[in-house]
């Protein structure tokens, strides 16, 4: 079987760290746009998308970090009678809300089907990520009710620290097992919300993108090709596919898993005190796809995008 996988580890370019879901005082965040940009720059991020609710936030001037225009849109009604949240990236124009209505659709926002919103964003050259599907209580019917979104949040820092609903691997696998090769994103959804019982939700997740240049065009093109991995802790240092095997190298971790449909795949665990740093998995030939995830001793995880087999 031939693997179908844009492997960032064998692609020319540099690694750039970014977060694609962030809020400021222009919606329900605690820091101003300028303060938020400064926070992520000081934390070592190379790019950031400020995605305030229902509005497009712009930060003028050179802030020393690449800014990708973004917005979080609310729309539709889910099977459980909640709503969809969609992260729009590389927007040229704001999807404006006027009270309960979205003027371009001439509808109440909860009457706008997510497919309409996806089509509107893509018509202006943007892309959509399905936000926090576990937090949103999305069902399989919900996530298959629309298409054209580039990926889904597999991890969301704010949803984890707020209500312990940060991980959405099951939703991602529901899509992958049905042949929807969407990408997995780790985003903060930062509001800079914290108290004595809650960790701050900023600078806790990222994607590492392999790109030749740090420009909006180049980063977005790399993301659209899947040339990245997602993480909230571990580093994935290398992935090689050769001779019917997949070799993976990481920072020290507790486990490295090869996730595949049904009972296929394998989990490698450090049973002794010495952590895992590299493993090799033999492809059996029955896997429709394999995605790699690793977990460190603090429970933090990292994910590659899926490797499909034809």
From TrEMBL:
One Gene Ontology term of the molecular function aspect: 5'-3' RNA exonuclease activity
UniProt xrefs under SUPFAM superfamilies: PHP domain-like
Residue ranges occupied by any Polymerase/histidinol phosphatase N-terminal domain in the UniProt entry: 18-77
Source organism, top-level taxon: Bacteria
Residue stretches spanning the membrane: none
InterPro entries: PHP_domain (IPR052018), Pol/His_phosphatase_N (IPR003141), Pol/histidinol_Pase-like (IPR016195)
Name of this chain's protein: Polymerase/histidinol phosphatase N-terminal domain-containing protein
Taxonomic source organism: Candidatus Desantisbacteria bacterium CG1_02_38_46
């Amino acid at each position: 079987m031939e693997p179908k996988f844009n492997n960032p580890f064998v692609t020319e370019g540099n690694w750039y760290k970014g977060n694609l879901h962030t809020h400021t005082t222009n919606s329900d965040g605690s820091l101003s746009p300028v303060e938020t940009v400064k926070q992520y720059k000081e934390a070592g991020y190379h790019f950031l998308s400020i995605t305030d609710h229902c509005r497009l936030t712009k930060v003028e001037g050179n802030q020393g970090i690449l800014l990708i225009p973004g917005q979080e849109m609310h729309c539709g009604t889910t099977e459980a009678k909640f709503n969809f949240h969609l992260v729009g990236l590389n927007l040229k124009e704001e999807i404006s809300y006027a009270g309960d209505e979205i003027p371009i659709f001439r509808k109440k926002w909860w009457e706008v089907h997510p497919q309409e919103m996806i089509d509107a964003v893509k018509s202006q050259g943007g892309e959509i990520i399905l936000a926090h599907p576990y937090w949103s209580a999305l069902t399989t019917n919900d996530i298959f009710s629309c298409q054209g979104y580039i990926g889904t949040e597999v991890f969301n820092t704010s949803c984890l620290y707020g209500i312990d609903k940060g991980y959405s691997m099951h939703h991602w696998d529901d899509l992958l097992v049905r042949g929807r090769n969407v990408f997995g994103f780790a985003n903060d959804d930062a509001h800079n919300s914290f108290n004595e019982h809650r960790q701050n939700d900023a600078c806790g997740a990222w994607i590492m993108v392999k790109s030749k240049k740090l420009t909006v065009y180049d980063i977005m093109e790399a993301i659209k090709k899947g040339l990245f991995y997602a993480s909230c802790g571990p580093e994935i240092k290398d992935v090689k596919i050769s001779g019917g095997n997949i070799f993976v190298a990481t920072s020290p971790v507790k486990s490295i898993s090869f996730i595949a449909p049904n009972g296929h795949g394998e989990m490698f665990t450090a049973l002794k005190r010495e952590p895992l740093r590299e493993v090799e998995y033999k492809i059996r030939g029955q896997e429709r796809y394999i995605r790699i995830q690793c977990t460190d001793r603090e429970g933090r995880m990292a994910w590659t995008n899926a490797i499909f087999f034809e």
